[in-house]
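Handoff note, outgoing to incoming analyst
You'll be picking up this chain. Sequence as last confirmed:
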Amino acid sequence: MAELDTRPEGFQRVAAALAANAHPHRPLWLDVAARTAQEAADALGVTLGQIAKSVVFRVKADGAADEAVLVITSGDKRVDEARLKPHTGTLGRADADFVKARTGFSIGGVSPAGFAPADGAAPPRLFIDRELFRFDIIWAAAGHPNGVFKLTPAELEKLTGAPVIDVVQA
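Most recent structure output, in case you need it:
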């Protein structure tokens, strides 16, 4: 456990969130950074689709702070914003500062658990794309580009409480 204490704060937050939810797998620290789904798949020796990539969008709010939406989908798929819009409203791009402020993670390490939004902001609203359920085992980011954790799509659904929807491009 002393090794965990030397890891970056985001990785430690995810490890704590997984432990608090009795998740059966501890996060792993990769020898190489995996900032993209392809890099993660290569490092783990799995298919690109088994990487549960986190895609953050910005929902424009009238007169209020913009809301963050996080879609967790297969690494081999692209989110179709038109299919997501009925669930969220008008979407905009989320830059690196917005992602960090709303999730507590930097791009390349955004985890579906262990959020730490800045300045009292609400954590992102989560959605899981149904395409992840093609796989028995998937891998998600663990708060840092070198961190990942193993789970099933059903465990992801239980861990996040997020609805499962169809939002990828055909």
